[in-house]
Amino acid sequence: MERPYVLIVSEVTIDGKLTLAKGVSSKEIMKLMDEEANRYLHQVRAECDGIMVGANTVRIDNPNLTVRYVDGENPIRVIPTSTGDIPLDANVLNTDVAPTVIAVSGRAPADRIRAFKEKGAEVVVAGKDRVDFVELLKKLKGMGIEKLMVEGGSSVNWELIKNDLVDEIRLIHLPVVVGGNDVPSLTSGEGFKTLDAVKRFSIKRVFQCGNQVITEYVLKEE
Length: 222
What we know:
Strand order of the largest sheet: 5-4-3-2-6-1-7-9-8
Strand content: 15-25%
Number of helices: 6
CATH topology: Dihydrofolate Reductase, subunit A
CATH class: Alpha Beta
CATH architecture: 3-Layer(aba) Sandwich
Largest sheet: 9 strands, mixed
Mean pLDDT: 96
Distance between the termini: 17 Å
Helix content: 10-25%
Radius of gyration: 17 Å
Shape: globular
Structural class: alpha/beta
């Protein structure tokens, strides 16, 4: 395989929402996750070489993307941001904690690239106007990332699924209903719209973890 093994891992509510409202940090709803669920999430992080979230997740959630609830090495943090539009004081740019790769497109300003490098991050250019995920994943594989965990958000999840770059999806189901027409769900984008086009997955495992149900899916073989 010319790319890492990719698994999307996310908490979702009963009605499939990722947050309490549009623009609200997912950290709020993740407060509902009990210790067992947090251990599960961080165990997956510890088993992966890299962990990816999108620029919007960095701007809203300001995550650390480190391993805390279990023993293990911090994965390489990968942030796709076509124009480099993330705060320079973001937690993921604290490279004393864990290494970080910022993936940009060819239209990212030189001064932003320079600023990321000054923070200790490695900058990868993949794509002309927008980050090309196919090209990016090839480059990540070349950097030694064999297993990549993706923690959203919905735009990144969609780009990866749309381009057949996802091998597995694991969902931590929180037993609450949020509602809301514009609240982010697992994926966004234009959608597949027909049964022939949808991506099909097989159930790998379903189990209770504390007060959550976890479902694990693998891409269905053609």
